[in-house]
Design a protein that fits this description.
This protein is of the alpha+beta class. The strands form three sheets. It has a five-stranded mixed beta sheet, with helices on one face. Helix 1 packs across helix 6, helix 3 crosses helix 6 and helix 5 crosses helix 6. The protein is elongated and about 55 Å long. The structure holds zinc ion (ZN).
């Protein structure tokens, strides 16, 4: 599932392709998670931005195109197939295809900044690599929640853009057990630093590649070989040598070190 580094890699590639282009034709599959795609027709894409895992493209007329790739969403220029959910025809003759086998992706056209139809976006926490992501406020949020720390991170409310992969990586780095409900200030600050570190590293490597994630140009990100925790159950912890263990937490597969990640 694409997280902040993957979505940012897609954004950087889309920006020069879509900026200033006018939409001349829109086709979509019938989708529960699609919201007024027809409003795209005739609009000019001013640029391609991002908040957390959402691509947000301001359009003329005070509208925004919001895209979330979900589990399996991919954007590409080229031929559509049976898994294509949307095709957006551009004034240069090309067609941007939104392909999404599992249909968890979102495509919405909304008034700029009005996210009533997109509750996760409406309640999105600060961007992790911006000054808005304040360690003290993060610590206060972690102290206030009753949820275990990893599922709480996945709600996107304390910080935007961290999903299953980078939550496992950051918690390992900060030595915090993913099911911990007692993250005090010192550990919250360590987690704040760890989140920034794993995201920065992944951004440099243009994201992590899995089955369903491809960058726009069909190349793959290079981060997968650098993962320490996520998907590495059974391998020795690089810090203490204990085999990493897998558990299910909040319905999500979670890998951690049972020795050096403390509750
Ligand atoms: Zn360990």
């Amino acid at each position: 599932m694409p997280e902040l580094p993957e979505v940012e890699s897609v954004r950087r590639q889309l920006q020069p392709e879509l900026r200033g282009r006018r939409v001349v034709k829109v086709w979509t599959d019938v989708q529960r998670r699609f919201h007024h795609p027809e409003l795209l027709d005739g609009r000019t894409i001013l640029e391609v931005g991002r908040r957390g895992k959402f691509l947000i493209a301001p359009l003329d007329g005070g509208l925004e195109l919001v895209l979330h790739l979900g589990m399996t969403g991919v954007l590409h220029f080229g031929a559509a197939d049976a898994w294509s959910r949307a095709r957006i025809g551009l004034d240069d003759g090309r067609e941007l295809v939104f392909r999404d086998a599992r249909r968890f992706g979102t495509l919405a056209v909304v008034e700029a900044g009005v996210y009533d139809a997109l509750p996760t976006l409406a309640h999105l926490g600060p961007e992790p690599l911006s000054d808005e992501f304040d360690p003290l406020r993060f610590a206060v949020a972690l102290a206030a929640t009753r949820s275990p720390v990893k599922p709480y991170l996945l709600t996107q409310r304390a910080v935007a853009g961290v999903g299953n992969i980078y939550a496992d990586e950051a918690l390992w780095l900060a030595r915090i057990h993913p099911a911990s409900r007692r993250v005090g200030r010192r550990r919250a600050y360590a987690l704040h630093d760890a989140i920034r570190q794993v995201l920065r590293q992944a951004l440099e490597r243009e994201g992590t590649t899995f089955r369903d994630f491809r960058m726009l140009n069909g190349e793959s990100g290079r981060n997968a070989t650098f993962l320490i925790a996520y998907g590495q159950a059974g391998r020795p912890c690089p810090r203490c040598g204990t085999p990493l263990r897998k558990m299910v937490l909040g319905g999500r597969g979670t890998t951690f070190c049972p020795t050096c990640q403390r509750r």
